[in-house]
């Protein structure tokens, strides 16, 4: 199907005459997949919203989230331990039947079955097939040799319990390829929404910063390669700001203390502060293999170029040589050298490109997909 057609947009709210359920994995206080779920829910205000559990601090009543029985067990404290039980929980979630089910899945939400497939249309938006099951090289939770047999069992269950899904949407071409490779299913690509309007319209004082430091943002976990970000800044002789949080904090602080350049840590910055950091940075360093990557788009909405790994979602979100530079491998030297070429880039062009991933564009494309696939 063509999502960018000039055909008339479907009427809102979508599927108003049908009984609709929206399903998501666990619901964290912040996160890209949660933002996608809520953006879709805005188009379907009458839909019931079902999740395995919600983390502490999530306003479940305000968001109208119904939690499964797993939320009343200790399993909610450990996603790794909960993982093998998830397919079963989804199958016992409710005895109610729906006309349309829309799942937002990065683990097993797409295996939920809330009606006879002959009468219930199941559409699934995939953030990624479960990395710890299908791509253990990405996620250490599934890479231990002792998990090889359980992983095979979960793969078989994933395939068997998702046959009833009628249509898939992938958040990137990277994920579209995994859906085909692992599940042998076709999908359309609908990139997730990024609040480019918010990040692009900062106060004047933020916009006129000196842009004298490099920036790394994200969860401080191994595959994000924050240690490489530190090495790049040191090789370039430029100060660095590292924003986020995670289990690697102590190790990264010790590494930073061995470097000559000034490295400042911002732990869990608020949204306004995050925007300020984007606008003040000379470049965002993002040498990680991501499914899509919302952070690089937020940076570009602020006119900040991205230096990243030539893999995964960055191949879609960064135009090499126009909105940043994509490099091969994990050697800091080429990244440091590319920083000398930032003057070749137009900040106006960088912001213009980021606009293609706006929340409005997502709403348009996902509405067309739902309207078509739910028939």
Automatic annotation (TrEMBL):
Glycosyl transferase family domain sequence ranges: 209-344
Keyword Ribosomal protein: no
InterPro entries per the UniProt record, alphabetical: Glyco_trans_1, Glyco_trans_4-like_N, Glycosyltransferase_grp1
Record keyword Glycosyltransferase present: yes
Gene Ontology terms, MF aspect: glycosyltransferase activity
One Pfam family it belongs to: Glyco_transf_4
Domain Glycosyltransferase subfamily 4-like N-terminal: 31-197
Keyword line: Glycosyltransferase, Transferase
UniProt protein name: Glycosyl transferase
Species this chain originates from: Paractinoplanes rishiriensis
